[in-house]
Amino acid sequence: MMPFDFDAPISRSNTDSVRWDAHLGRDVIPLWVADMDFSSPPCVVEALAKRVRHGIFGYTHAPVDLRTAICRHLEHDYSWRVDPDWIVILPSVVSGLYTAVRELTKPHEAVLIPKPVYHHLRLACSQAPRAFTEIPLALEDDRWVMPWHQLHDLCGEHTKLALLCNPQNPGGTVYSKSELTQFAHVCEQNDILICSDEIHAGLVLNPALRHIPIASLSQSISMRTVTLMSLNKTFNFPGIGLAWAVAENPTLRQAMQTNLHQTIADPGLLAYTATLSALQGGESWRQSLLEYLRGNRDTVIARIRAMPQLKVSRIDATYLAWIDCSGLNHPDPHSLFLAAGVALSPGAQFNAPQCVRLNFATQRARLHAALDRMALAIGAMPSA
Ligand SMILES: Cc1ncc(COP(=O)(O)O)c(C=O)c1O
Hints:
This protein is α/β, with parallel strands linked by helices. It has helices spanning 18-21, 42-54, 66-78, 93-104, 119-127, 151-154, 177-189, 219-222, 250-256, 269-281, 283-305, 333-339, 364-379, and strands spanning 29-31, 87-90, 110-115, 131-136, 138-140, 143-145, 159-165, 193-197, 225-230, 243-246, 311-312, 320-324, 342-346, 355-359. It folds into two domains: 18-41 and 283-379, Alpha-Beta Complex (Aspartate Aminotransferase, domain 1), CATH 3.90.1150.10; 50-281, Aspartate Aminotransferase, domain 2 (3-Layer(aba) Sandwich), CATH 3.40.640.10. Bound molecules: pyridoxal-5'-phosphate (PLP). Pyridoxal-5'-phosphate binds next to helix 4.
């Protein structure tokens, strides 16, 4: 028996949920944007309630304990020793991505990004604007990985920054030490800085794997890296929002502070409360969450594999299944499933229109209902 009940459905209507309101009034199961249908841990909810009951919400600085609590967490979970002074508190990982691209490169310089990847990595480049080259991920032994031996050739004369997403969204890859070392080695050889989005670090589902922050590999790698992290995903409070950048190199750290307190607002005070309480008391909830998500992941993999037109590979981390629908021979798989009452993230958002991404962080009964609808939609196709 799990100490937390993830099967209990919680209505999200009338909460202005982005995910649930997009198809309001229609019989659609929303399994797209990456938040979860689970309440945050009781320790977080109680800490927020206490803070709200106080009733005064004046200008608030980061709690004095926050940076040291983050350092303890990084050392405990990832054996990564970080000095509290290396940490820059940000309102979100996305704002960190845009800052990194703008501030760590000059207008004529270029960026390397994985493909497919969470769309804001690509948008951060196109909006800066900076030229970018995509690193095409490929399936190897059922994992989405980079073409390690071609990385060097993808670096151009003006390439200055490489964006990494580890664990990888979409695809759920947890990069190994040797893979990260190869990536870092190419960056060192070509004098390229690294910005590593590690927001899914707390969501490693495979108990045999550990998340390794790329900056933890060596001091020289750390000196060329900005790591972006947050507890928003793991503890399900992205609507409150707080992230941090770790940069040992003072020049990179300074760059990540650009526009902070100006056009980039400080986190709201409840974000400090949520993050600190999750750091201090959220671990047993996280372990239960991972157990539940493993069950959902296994459900998704088994049921998608029973649909021969779809392909899904191993998912070692995240609550997102990356599904290849090219076997359907349908011009727009996302619309097909939406018409059948399941809203998935369209692959086009990740530059891969023949795929869809399914968020399985919901109650298992709802997940089964969505998978039933997907199977029915496929069964009803003229060629089926
Ligand atoms: C890889 C990745 N980075 C960043 C974010 C968003 O982070 P934040 O809400 O802190 O901006 C997401 C959300 O899905 C994500 O998957």
